[in-house]
Amino acid sequence: MAEAELPAAEPAAAASAEEAESAAAPTAAAEALAEAAADAELTASGEDAAESPMGSKSSDAAAAQDGEKRRSVTIVADLQARRSLRKVKSKGSLANADALFEELAMNAGMFSDFLCRYWCKDRLKPVQERREAPQASTILGLLMTGDPDAKEAVGFSYAISVLRREQLRSALMEGITLECKERKIFKRDGIAVFQHWARHMLEDKRQLLWLRHEVESWQLRWKLMHLALTKEPESIWEKKDRLDRFWSDFHDRSRVLENGPLSQHGLAAQHGFSEFSPSRPATSSTRPGTSTTTVGGWGGSPSGRPMTGASTAAASRPGTAWGDPLAEVHEEVFGMRWDFDQATQWKKVDSRSGTNAQRLNRLVLKQVQSGLGTESGGGGSGLHKSASLPSLAGRGRPSTVNSMASSTFGRNMTKLPPLQHSKSKLWKECDARHIAPMPIHFLTGNSQHLVAINKGLTDSDLIAMAAMVGDVPSVEEVNLYDNMLLTDKGMVQMMKHLSRESLQETLQVLNLGRCSRLGAYTLDAMVKMLKSGGSLLELNLSQVPIATRFQLPLCKALGNHPSIKTLNLAETGMQPHDMTVACLRELLASKTLASLDIGWNNFDGKVFKALGAFVIGNTSLRKLLVANCAATSDVWGRLKQNTPVSADDFVPPLSRFLEQLAQDTTLTHLDISMNRCDFRSALILEDALDTHKNLRELTMCHNPLGALGIRSIMRLMSRDHTGLMFVATEGCYTGENNESGGKNGQVFSYTNPGGHYDLQLWRPYHRSLLRMLYKTVDYLQVQPDEAFKPPDENSKSVDFRPNSNSSASAAWTHVGVDGATGIRQLPKTGDLRFIFDIQSAIFNKFMQGGKDGIGDTDYAGFLRAYYSMMRFTPGVKKVIPLCARWTELNGDTYAQQVFLTALSRDFNLTLPILEYFTSSCRTMLRQTVCALLPSLGHNRCSYFESGLLFPTVFDYMFCQERTKNLVEFNLDNPTGHYKLDLANSTDGAVAERLMLLDRWEGALDDKHNRADISHRGNRSHIRNEVWGGRSLHSICRSVAEWKMPEHGEFEFDYMSNQKPLRKAEVLTTKLWDRVLILTYEAACSPEDKIAALRSISHNFFLTASHMRALIGYFKEEIQRANVFIIFYLRIVDMHNAKMFRVRFESSEEVTRLQNRLGYAAFFPFLQPENSRFELDLSVYDQRLCSSMYVYLCTKEKFPQNLHEYGYTRADGTEDPLPLGVPRSWADMKGIPTAGVFRAIYRCAPEDRNFACRKEMAQRLGFFDVDGLVQDEVAWWTGLMEPPEDVLNLLEFFISRYDNVEKPFLEIDGVDGNGCITLRELMEGLEAMDCHKFDSKKGAKGGATKEARIDAIFRYLDPGGEGSVSREEWAILDQLWKEFDLSIREFVHFLMLSFGDDLMDAWMALDEDEGGELDEEEWLQAVVSVGYFGPAKVVFALLDSSDDGNISFDEFQVLEKYKPTRSPQ
């Protein structure tokens, strides 16, 4: 059916029309059948009437002739009726062309289940409200037709193929499961299994809810921890009050200086007191829109700057009234004015405060009235007078405004004693320099912290401030950050006053950051101040250029300072020379320093190395920031020293510092941002900090880490025994994500660390990589000698060359952990080559587990145990920051993709983590599932649950197409061909699993002392491995030594050594027929059929006859090869392998099978007769196969069993082998290692050494042959093996005899001796009237009849004795069985396809209704109906008349080959 014919939402009228057409089909068929029968009856009666008057024959003969005619007419009529019925059915089938889809059940597969769930969720009522489950095909049709672009977007044909494949798999497994449970091969699942999975899924949901809550809490806690804790900010009322006081004093001083002393009355009159006490100042203007005065001030402004002359005049013009006392309270308390702007603000405050504002009004009013009453009574305890108005001190009403602001809204302000004397000096300096003072808290007398950040201060401003600083008793902080106009002129004055002993005892913070114009005088003054001691805790000189001559004195003073804790020397001009090393030595000699920022300076490897040593020696340092310091590399220095340079020399110099952090135990925060750190530096950091318990925060922003570097950092953070909780990696998601081969291709994989290593120990990265390998050895409790092995066959131990420029080797001594430092002190020179193989030790532990150990064939159990040991499983306290980091990347698609790539390997994740990742970022749902699916483990339940995370069909199909290699990977039957894209994490996971299985099976081979039959003699089960179009054999000896990259296409064949027991339970014939029928009738493509069979292949075993029948259902060679390889190791009677091997008619096809499965694995151990081989001796397994043939020949009949042998040397010349095939070739050591050896192996039955064959099959083929006897072997010969004339002779015998024994007796004679000579054969055939070998019968090449019979005789006499024994004559019996079986298989296929009536099959074959088929038509017809077996054999048998055509009468001969039905 075409894909577009999938059932969709059709109108009701169309559905009724289809039903009517379908219902009319049987009626039309019946009418056609009746019409054909009537025609036949009329024809027969007419013929009878015509022949009856003749009366020339007897009644019996006439009756016989009449019966024959009637039978012929009936057959014709039946054929016509059946053809009419087929046409009607074909028309009616259009109404339900996709009937196979309609049979899909809801539980047919993961995709079917997803469709039903999606439909019930969004399109239909809930499942519990429905009587029937929806059909998956109907759902798919409706979902697709709803969106006009959905078919093309999703790949409609691919979705159909997935559904059909799932339906076929479900149908096959249904029958297999039922039968295997009835035969007790499968265990029946009790209710406990379902309860277990129900609890498991419920627990997953609980963990997801817990994870969401904890991640949110963690993010909140982290923000609170890193929130800049500052003093409570100053409110607007507090600020206005402070500025009013300051500017009141400033203007009062100015007027006193200008006008002289004034009386209280005059001063009051000048400032607008008109109604109440003469000492009361005017507090507001009476008109909206006028300039406002500040509370209790003289011309203050909200901005804190002095008012202009116009504003002052407007505020002091005559006629301004004091107003209502209650209104005054509102003004003074709430800081509001009755102009337009302030009225708007008043309304806002009042509406926000509600009843609280009303209560506050009443409270303030009560206090004011109490104060007024006290004033009128001449005493009492009214409100106190504000200390900020000293010039207004005297009798009269006290000022309530400032008192209320101070008591009610100024609770958090710092209360300091008056600073009139200090202010006078400030004002004096300001007047002298014609500047206005800056009303910062310190200058207004409200704080001991001189904070003037980014105020644009000039030297004049600073000198004025310094004058005030010189008079104050204490200063706790001087913060002049980002005042870039300051120079030595003003700063020297400030430093002079700060150097006073009284201030040094109180000064704790000095911040001159970004004051970039400061020079030598300032530095000199600072050095002197630091040398004199003091209580300074924090010093910031960032971006202040420090001259070289001041660097060391300054650092010495800082290092010797008794209290300094926080120091910032970022971007101060440190350069990569010895002076910088000396400065760092002095700085880090401090016993109080806790935080050091030396970022944005210029360091080289030497400086970083010294820095690492100094950090280790400092026990007080907690925070170190070295951002953007690795601006240079020591490559040029190495070139000057004539030292070899390679790409790794360009790694950041920071690596020399990171390596030494392994000895640090005090740091809690490290910042190494912008230092060109790549994945190599990340591995060094992982190695150094993997046991650091105190480091909690790591900042690595803007380093090209890439996926490999991010993976190292994530592994470091996931370790439960480390204290690292937060890693900042912004801008770190670009960089190298792969490695090339050679010395630069050393990449560490925690999951699979084995491989070939070529390390240069003068590189920090290589030393860290070696330490990581040693840590793996320690973790697994393995002796180093067991893991570090020689790099090649010529080496006996690890290859260590102390001098990189010399080839002289030295013994390598495994370095232990230093008890003092806790690390391995590796040599820092020389080259080290070895093969790291930790898997063998792991596998030995798995095998020695006793009853809890892992079985040889329990591949799933092996991978679970291995991954639980060799992957990181984030603990409870580490999985939360991991998930939080994912949410922080939300919106950065590229960074998220790299993050997922990093987590796709080396990590064990759970389904709740995956669900959290998908739910927290829906835009990355598909990419997240595709990347993290391998981290869930090989668990079909997890695969199924992960499929439920997709919201749409498109999302599901997108991921299904990209993860199909992993989801459909049959771990229990891994033999097959693989073509994987390593850039795809799921394909990479399949490759990783197969590489681990390869080493696991290699360990099992060693355990069971199995011979090495691998492709290259390296005990690998992976063959024909090609990566990126290049053979891996040219890169490394074995795939086990290869460090698998994360890019490129990896193509190979995998061949397992696990063979079934000979007595294993196989499928019954009835069930196998059902499997074949379902496979044949399925609407899948051949590739989908093979995929469905592969997914269930581990559930049952086959016989050789089952395999023979199965490969006949596939047309293409590649399809037959794939299905054959899948089930090759599921055959229990491998001693009968000749039965299915003969179905591969082409020698090229057999060669390709040998190359995929292995020449030794495909070797015909028990029936090597007529094996034709041509083997390349340069390849290990082909050389082994050649040796096996020669060895078997020496054990049976040497050299006669080797026919038509030849040997071509490596240079192309032919070796005539005058003495025959050398016996020494029976040993692998004696056979040449180059050239091509070819021959044909033939052996007479009496020369067979069955015991030797069994021994070879057990030793080299690993087959179960214990107790096997010759009678159990179905000795077989294929129809393509003998010459054509032998088959002609066999056809002659089949047409005249029931078996080959009768013609043997006729030729040998009654009194024969049990042997036939050539003369007897010729005479016997002549007596039988056999003319098949006459020259007129198509003799080839002009061969005579005698020559052709002589060739037959020589074939039947492989031993060359000159006679054919009864055992040798039995070769014809083997060919007879092949003939007979081929025909019976063809008949069996027709019965499965068309039913028991062969007439239906004939109609399908004879489509043109010609009544006859020639050989070409026959071959095309059998292929068209789906049969791909030996059709020529069947044609030769049916063409009994030798006219080159088959009629229906001849076709009916197949009736006798029908299988007998056993009673039900």
How would you briefly describe this protein structure?
Helices cover 48% and strands 7% of the residues. The chain is of the alpha/beta class and 1464 residues long.
How does this model look, in words?
There is one protein chain. With 1464 residues, the chain is of the alpha/beta class. The protein has 56 helices and 26 strands. A ten-stranded parallel β-sheet has the order 1-2-3-4-5-6-7-8-9-10. Strands 11, 12, 13 and 14 form a four-stranded antiparallel β-sheet that branches. A four-stranded antiparallel β-sheet has the order 15-18-16-17, sandwiched between helices. 39% of the residues are buried. The model is unreliable at 1-64, 81-107, 122-134, 142-154, 261-360, 363-418 and 740-744 (pLDDT under 50).
